[in-house]
């Protein structure tokens, strides 16, 4: 039940310029720290490497964009996007039922507790949470020890750690909250009376879920998928700590390119990634009015 | 308890299935870290669990003698405090601006939240390039600048949620009684927002404390905590790194849990605008 807050009329018309003044500090941070640096590297991605200074010189060129997919970089782009899509799919499949438990099947106290449990890890060290999977998935980890003592395998299963599987587990565990929160927000927007009415008319749980609930929370599901995808595309620590030998990701690739001081190419990769992610978010926002999700926060 | 839930009664197995998946999700998020915590209490050199009778804080005490760790901790604390001290008031200011806006508030919100969607590596690369142009040498200041952008969306959200519970009528009453906008803010809004301001400070501090991708590009000679940890994790794990990971996790979880409890307590004490309305 979104309450329509509307503009804060009570503050009086005198707040109009004050509203602008209040917005200034955050806008200054956005423009100065966020936008200008990204615009700068986007511009410089069209400059050329200068072997004299190991920096760049203003000679306009598309060379970095032509080299974007060379040297196995196309594979890194595809693998990063593929693994991120897989992470987002797995996270969404877990998040929809979990959000339903929070939003539909629990009273307010348990819902608050569950939501806290799902969001607390986000504020803790991602590095430690990824590292912990090494102890679980390693040759002498929990899973291999259990499998061997049960006699299911005789030698440790090698593909558990330092593999795409390990990266996937680490990323799902890390970014699951990104999927759950928007879906819970979407659940909060459902009119309870609609569900009560359909139940009174004899609809069972699964019918209510499929015909009423899922269509209403679809924007939240898409937002959740997208948030996990964006986070997984940008990360590098799960790949670095859990991935196999030679495993790469876009972020690691940018770092590798910087090591050989090819600044224009690193800028080009960064520009392409930011552009693609921005377009994705804008399309999803246009199609599904994602910003409306925040209305259930009452803001 | 489920009598308050929206869907009650028979669920044809749905409740069981969904509860199982929820438990599985929580297990994926918590079990590895819990295992790490228990393993960090093992006094032996090799990894693994020992019976509780042999639990020891040996490796935690060993941390105290690590000079490089102390340096990284100091640097991270400095960055985190500077970041939080800026992010909390700027976040509140952004939330107040959003409330005062009549037009473009959706766009403003997206602009403020947009920093959440840019990969840390790219933000770090862009900012370090820009700071190089400006001539600002890498130090704790440059990291704090990067972390301000990263934490601001969260600080603004916490303040927005808090402001949503400040009734416009309360402010209007103060104004009718002759208070100016600043007096009304100081006497009414600020006290009501105290818990949220503390929360957004704490969240910004923790997000900064645990951030690695941006710090990697922005740090000077002194490593921050995550940069130091990342190095230690990749250079043959010694038992102290488990103790260190354990300490970081326990402190972070305890602090966030306290803040969540304070926020929930505050929300439930506040009068609601409409019965049954949930905020968060």
UniProtKB/TrEMBL annotation, chain A:
Domain ABC transmembrane type-1: from-to ranges: 77-284
Q: How does it sit in the membrane?
A: Multi-pass membrane protein
UniProt keyword annotations, A-Z:
Cell membrane, Membrane, Transmembrane, Transmembrane helix, Transport
List all membrane-crossing ranges.
20-47, 83-105, 112-132, 165-188, 208-233, 263-284
Q: Which InterPro entries match?
A: MetI-like (IPR000515), MetI-like_sf (IPR035906)
The listed locations are: Cell membrane
- Family label: Belongs to the binding-protein-dependent transport system permease family. CysTW subfamily.
Q: What is the recorded name of this protein?
A: Spermidine/putrescine ABC transporter permease
Question: Origin organism of this chain?
Answer: Bradyrhizobium iriomotense
From TrEMBL, chain B:
Q: Name one Pfam family in it.
A: BPD_transp_1
Q: How does it sit in the membrane?
A: Multi-pass membrane protein
| Coiled-coil zones | none
Domain of life (superkingdom): Bacteria
User: ABC transmembrane type-1 domain: which residues?
Assistant: 73-260
User: What name does the UniProt record give this protein?
Assistant: Spermidine/putrescine ABC transporter permease
Sequence intervals crossing the membrane: 16-38, 77-98, 107-128, 140-163, 184-207, 241-264
Spell out the family assignment given in the record's similarity comment.
Belongs to the binding-protein-dependent transport system permease family. CysTW subfamily.
Keywords annotated in UniProt = Cell membrane, Membrane, Transmembrane, Transmembrane helix, Transport
Cellular compartment(s)? Cell membrane
């Amino acid at each position: 039940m979104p309450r329509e807050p509307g503009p804060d009329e009570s503050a009086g018309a005198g707040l109009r310029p004050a509203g602008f003044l209040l917005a200034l500090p955050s806008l200054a941070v956005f423009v100065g720290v966020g936008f200008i640096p990204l615009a700068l590297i986007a511009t410089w991605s069209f400059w050329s490497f200068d072997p004299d200074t190991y920096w760049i010189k203003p000679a306009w060129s598309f060379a970095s964009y032509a080299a974007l997919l060379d040297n196995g970089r196309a594979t890194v782009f595809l693998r990063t996007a593929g693994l991120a899509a897989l992470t987002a799919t797995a996270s969404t499949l877990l998040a929809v039922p979990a959000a339903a438990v929070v939003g539909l099947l629990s009273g307010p106290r348990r819902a608050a507790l569950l939501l806290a449990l799902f969001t607390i890890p986000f504020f803790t060290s991602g590095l430690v949470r990824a590292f912990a999977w090494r102890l679980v998935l390693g040759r002498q980890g929990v899973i291999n020890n259990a499998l061997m003592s049960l006699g299911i395998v005789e030698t440790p299963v090698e593909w558990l750690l330092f593999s795409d599987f390990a990266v996937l587990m680490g990323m799902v565990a890390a970014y699951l909250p990104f999927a759950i929160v928007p879906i819970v927000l979407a659940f909060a927007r459902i009119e309870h009376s609609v569900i009560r009415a359909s139940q009174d008319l004899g609809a069972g749980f699964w019918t209510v879920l499929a015909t009423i609930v899922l269509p209403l929370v679809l924007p939240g599901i898409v937002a959740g998928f997208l948030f996990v995808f964006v986070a997984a595309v940008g990360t590098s620590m799960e790949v670095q700590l859990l991935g196999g030998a030679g495993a790469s990701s876009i972020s690691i690739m940018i770092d590798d390119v910087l090591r050989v001081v090819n600044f224009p190419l690193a800028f080009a990769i960064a520009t392409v990634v930011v552009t693609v992610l921005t377009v994705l978010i804008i399309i999803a926002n246009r199609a599904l009015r994602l910003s409306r999700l925040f209305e259930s926060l009452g803001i | 308890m489920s009598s308050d839930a929206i869907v009650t009664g028979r669920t044809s197995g749905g409740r069981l299935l969904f509860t199982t998946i929820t438990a599985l999700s929580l297990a994926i998020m918590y079990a590895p870290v819990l295992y790490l915590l228990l393993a960090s209490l093992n006094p032996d050199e090799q990894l693994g669990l020992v019976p509780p009778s042999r639990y020891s804080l040996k490796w935690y005490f060993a941390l105290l003698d690590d000079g490089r760790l102390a340096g990284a901790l100091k640097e991270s604390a400095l960055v985190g405090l500077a970041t939080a001290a800026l992010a909390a008031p700027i976040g509140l200011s952004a939330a107040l601006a959003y409330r005062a806006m009549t037009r473009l508030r959706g766009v403003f919100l997206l602009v403020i939240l947009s920093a959440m969607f840019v990969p840390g590596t790219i933000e770090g690369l862009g900012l370090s390039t820009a700071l190089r142009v400006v001539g600002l040498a890498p130090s704790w200041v440059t990291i704090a600048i990067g972390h301000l952008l990263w934490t601001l969306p969260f600080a603004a959200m916490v303040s927005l949620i808090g402001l949503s519970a400040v009734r416009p009528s309360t402010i209007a009453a103060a104004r009718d009684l002759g208070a100016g906008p600043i007096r009304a803010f100081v006497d009414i809004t600020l006290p009501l927002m105290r818990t949220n301001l503390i929360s957004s400070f704490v969240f910004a501090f923790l997000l900064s404390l645990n951030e690695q991708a941006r710090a990697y590009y922005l740090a000077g000679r002194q490593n921050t905590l995550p940069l130091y940890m990342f190095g230690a994790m990749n250079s043959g794990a010694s038992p102290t790194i488990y103790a260190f990971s354990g300490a970081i996790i326990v402190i972070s979880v305890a602090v966030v849990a306290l803040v969540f409890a304070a926020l929930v307590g505050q929300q439930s004490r506040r009068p609601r605008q409409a019965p049954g309305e949930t905020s968060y």
